[in-house]
């Protein structure tokens, strides 16, 4: 890419230190994707024409306001790295190579692929990975198809984009994930209310029900995230991969009004939940409370892949 491109499009320059790793000079090779906060490129060693999956990935912040989200992603991934079971799940979480001190970019170690066909072993891995996050008291909040990728050889499913994740204060001794966030103070299943962020489209059913009812005069919309919130988003993402109707409807819901978005998503998910194939999955999720029976859930999900 030309110098002109760097200057006009990016907040970095080819001569910046980030383009030099272990004394090797890198250039941006290919745009891999973009999201709400980023534009993402593969980096390749100058004069090296090997496939770019062997090289690092640069996630560049597109707006100053998002830099704190990048620093949060770095902190959450560091917290996970220090957790006791990390080595068991490290294959399923994108690994950081380097982060800009003010959060202008994050470099990741490896180039991943979008999921073409979700396989049952990926589903099992992702469920285990979310159970691990629950054990570590981390709620991702943005588990959705765009944030689920696979390793280049498609061996491992990978959860990316921890920018909206937070360390929860859910009381582990008394947890009922199904309680709605607008319940009164008796509800010990969820975190204290915090401003919402992350996915709306793939949000937990009770989350959507709560959000759509929030008066429109409220400037800050808050929610008490349930301990197993991410698992609900994962189940919705699995159904998305399995069901063409969802694929062709949910992504077209585009409105700036969060309550309206939640309302329209709720209509679509309500319809999907009537489908015999998926009914059992959602019922099982909602009937489990304190102890999520992961094995039982995996067995029901397996039926979708037979
Ligand atoms: N390591 C990676 N390898 C390949 N593509 C990636 C990688 N990380 C991110 N992407 C692509 O860039 C998109 C945006 O990255 P993401 O971390 O989700 O940031 P955002 O906060 O902007 O959503 C992803 O949906 C994906 O398509
Ligand atoms: Mg994303």
Q: Can you describe this structure?
A:
This protein is α+β, with helices and mostly antiparallel strands and 306 residues long. The protein is built from ten helices and 13 strands. The strands form four sheets. A six-stranded antiparallel beta sheet has the order 1-2-3-4-6-5, covered by helices on one side. About 5% of the residues have low confidence. Bound molecules: adenosine-5'-diphosphate and magnesium ion. The site of adenosine-5'-diphosphate has 19 residues, from strand 2, strand 3 and strand 4.
Jot down its keywords:
binds magnesium ion; 306 residues; 13 strands; Tyr_kinase_AS; alpha+beta; 16% strand; protein serine/threonine kinase activity; 36% helix; binds adenosine-5'-diphosphate; three-stranded antiparallel β-sheet; six-stranded antiparallel β-sheet; ATP binding; Phosphorylase Kinase, domain 1; Protein kinase domain-containing protein; Transferase(Phosphotransferase), domain 1
Compact description:
By secondary structure, this protein is an alpha+beta fold.
Secondary-structure blueprint:
Elements lengths: L2 H7 L10 E2 L2 E11 L3 E8 L11 E5 L5 H16 L3 H4 L6 E4 L5 E4 L4 E2 L5 H16 L2 E2 L8 E3 L6 E3 L6 E2 L26 E2 L9 H8 L9 E2 L5 H14 L1 H6 L8 H17 L1 H12 L6 H9 L4
Bound molecules: adenosine-5'-diphosphate (ADP) and magnesium ion.
Magnesium ion (MG) binds next to loops.
**Shape summary:** globular
Overall CATH class of the largest domain: Mainly Alpha
> Which CATH architecture of the largest domain would you pick?
Orthogonal Bundle
Mean pLDDT: 87
The sequence of SSEs as H and E is HEEEEHHEEEHEEEEEHEHHHHH
C-alpha Rg, in Å? Answer: 20 Å
Major beta sheet, strand line-up? 1-2-3-4-6-5
Helix share of residues?
A: 25-40%
The DSSP helix count reads: 10
The fraction of residues assigned to DSSP E strands is 15-25%
The named CATH superfamily of the largest domain: Transferase(Phosphotransferase) domain 1
Heteromolecules bound: adenosine-5'-diphosphate, magnesium ion
Spans of at least 5 consecutive residues whose pLDDT stays below 50 are 174-188
Number of domains: 2
Structural class, by secondary structure, is: alpha+beta
How many strand elements?
A: 13
CATH fold call of the largest domain:
Transferase(Phosphotransferase), domain 1
